[in-house]
């Protein structure tokens, strides 16, 4: 039996367009016959390398104003719940991403990740504090306190740093990003469908 | 008879994604029953206000590398000719945009604009020098030298400056941008279809 093609989905919990992709990719990937590997990471260190100390949507106000409106329009067009704007934005996603990295090979990674996005962007809840992350884990039937403690181990912190450097070395500069087996990079929720099509072997006509 | 809804298409000759939109919008607008007003402008002064002295695709190399690949993929998926990369990038678009501003109410504005984009992004030609712009005008059966001279008048230069300030005051921060009669702003070639749908009265379900 042929191996199912895979697509890596690199996402950041503070990223608005990662929220849109996270809530759509399972259904779209199933239709495309593609298996998805969820890759949580942090974009902050990549932004810092290009001199940005916060989200570009804060640094460039006109761009930010349009993003919130666009985010709201896109969520509505996908039939997702109305958007709530996290306060502050961006949320500090360090505790959540450490847990996701710890859960990388666990069957709760995807439901946990979607629950974090929903808390932040559909329910107006903070995801920054340890207690917020514990509450999300608990709601999934896990022992949140224990998972958070394990996620704070030095070994797991190193795993997160390695993931961020892997992202950088593979050309990632923002989130969400989709990477195919043959190294093709697609940036942004807007490219999810093309990334899945590419992963499943489709190519735009005439493309070298 | 009801007035046809209109959509403003703000574009910059140095902008890669403006090229994609310029070659697609006429057909898409006809299907949507929307009349398009072509609005040439310069993004440089807007970028300068946020501290950028050149294209963000040059300032942020990983983003730039992906843009060229994405641009190539998107052009192929639309059935447009293969992309050529202008050297240097971005091209100085001042002469071309002055001509377009001068031609704002002329029936040659659209063919001229598409010809400039094709020269730059499909034929690998420079669009920066006066002679390049004259050649494009001549190829459309106009008197290029005379048009270029008229476009360099103080009145026309002022008209361009006013357009750029209009763009800024209406929330534009990049190109291409689509603006509807009711002030809804859509940024980027990826939003052309949504902008046309909005202009024709469609709204995402549940959107306030």
From TrEMBL, chains A, B:
Give EC number(s), comma-separated. 5.99.1.4
The protein's enzyme class: isomerase
Cite the GO molecular-function annotations of the record.
isomerase activity
Keyword annotations of the record:
Isomerase
Pfam families recorded: DSBA (PF01323)
What residue stretch is flagged as signal peptide?
none
Which residues belong to any copy of the DSBA-like thioredoxin domain? 6-194
Q: Which domain of life is it from?
A: Bacteria
Question: Which reaction equations make up its catalytic activity?
Answer: 2-hydroxychromene-2-carboxylate = (3E)-4-(2-hydroxyphenyl)-2-oxobut-3-enoate
Q: What is stated as this protein's family in its record?
A: Belongs to the GST superfamily. NadH family.
Q: What is this protein called?
A: 2-hydroxychromene-2-carboxylate isomerase
Tell me what organism the protein belongs to.
Methylobacterium persicinum
